[in-house]
Design goal:
25% strand, 363 residues, three-stranded antiparallel beta sheet, six-stranded mixed beta sheet, disordered N terminus, 40% helix, globular, 10 helices
């Protein structure tokens, strides 16, 4: 009996050690590896769904609201149990009916998620105000002077127009704007063009151009002409054009941008939603004017059944609306819209001492 007891204690000790090691693995770095990615994926997916749902609601002329995730707190709890059974008396009394050693581990995670409604005057101003020059310049530079980004963010350059919608199909678009966008993209790809910030307070921005080489000098000369100014004679060195927000043609050589508001961009995206014709005929969805060139960079498809190849999808009025996972152009444009929405939401959310809405999630 002494031998059996000694072996039993040794098994119990080994089990405790194993469970302790398991607990450390779960509650240590492994908990971050498994939990952080899952929470981040969920936040990204729901942000995308929220933005797409807002676009679809706008297409139907319906109000919408936004919730910002202000915090996620995950409480981890692990519980271990050990049991053993020992018999006394003749072996025939308990042979085959005892479990010498049993052990168990219970793992529980209870997250608490806090949301902040995005609303109020500050949010309305962020939604309706034209994009600031610093944010616009940073985006254009980061996106490699993408024609789609320029066409979506900017509605006018030095008096050339890029309208949100084309109310009359007989009115031709201003070809100068499209050519300016193409020239900026081509010069950017070859490293001859850079959006830059000048030192000083308040910060100012310039478009730096380097026209060494006959072909590039011709392109820069054409760009100056479309902007309404004569190009400098010497383009081998770097020349700069100040960049400002404003309407019309500036009095001296400069770039004057009219940027779109976030509301403008959402309205253009809403016009790209493929709602069924019966929803328009019934008045459920208003009939909209055709979007301008900016609307060609995104397409939000509609389907009666749940799409299988969607990057993101939401359901509204019995239909699924989605961006196809193979539609690269629409994906890039949606990513830009979502990034802008995230920035403007973060700027608009008021800091509060306590969360407005806290949702504990437990079993």
């Amino acid at each position: 009996m002494r031998l059996a007891t000694c072996v039993g204690h040794r098994l119990v000790a080994l089990a405790v050690a194993g469970l302790s090691a398991t607990g450390c693995a779960v509650l240590g770095p492994a908990a971050i590896k498994s939990g952080r990615a899952a929470y981040n994926d969920a936040i990204v997916a729901t942000n995308n769904q929220q933005v797409l749902a807002m676009i679809v609601r706008m297409r139907y002329g319906e109000p919408s609201g936004l919730l910002a995730v202000s915090s996620v707190t995950a409480n981890l709890h692990i519980q271990t149990s050990i049991g053993s059974e020992f018999g006394f008396g003749p072996d025939s009394n308990f042979e085959g009916n005892l479990t010498p050693l049993s052990a168990g581990v219970a793992y529980e995670e209870n997250p608490t998620i806090s949301y902040t409604p995005v609303q109020g005057e500050k949010y309305l101003r962020q939604l309706l105000s034209p994009l600031p020059i610093d944010l616009t310049v940073l985006l254009l530079g980061a996106l490699g002077n993408s024609p789609e980004a320029m066409t979506l963010l900017v509605k006018g350059i030095n008096g050339t127009q890029n309208p949100d919608f084309v109310a009359d199909a007989s009115v031709e678009a201003d070809a100068r704007f499209g050519r300016i966008v193409v020239l900026l993209a081509e010069l950017g790809r070859t490293g001859r063009l850079t959006w830059a910030q000048e030192p000083g307070e308040p910060p100012s921005f310039v478009l730096a151009l380097r026209g060494e080489g006959t072909a590039y000098a011709q392109q820069i000369g054409e760009l100056y002409g479309l902007l309404g100014f004569a190009a400098p004679r010497d383009l081998d060195d770097v020349v700069t054009l100040p960049v400002h927000l404003g309407v019309g043609k500036p009095g001296k050589a400069a770039i004057q941008l009219r940027t779109r508001s976030l509301y403008d961009i959402f309205s253009i995206a809403a016009a790209s939603v493929d709602v069924p014709e019966e929803h328009i005929q019934s008045g459920l969805a208003p009939r909209l004017a055709a979007a301008g060139s900016a609307g060609q960079s995104i397409r939000i498809q509609g389907s009666k059944s749940c799409p299988r190849s969607a990057m993101i999808a939401v359901k509204r009025h019995g239909w699924w609306y989605f961006i196809d996972g193979t539609d690269t152009r629409s994906k890039v444009t949606f990513r830009l819209i979502e990034a802008l929405m995230s920035v403007r939401m973060a700027e608009a959310v008021e800091q509060r001492a306590t969360p407005v809405l806290t949702v504990p999630v437990s079993r």
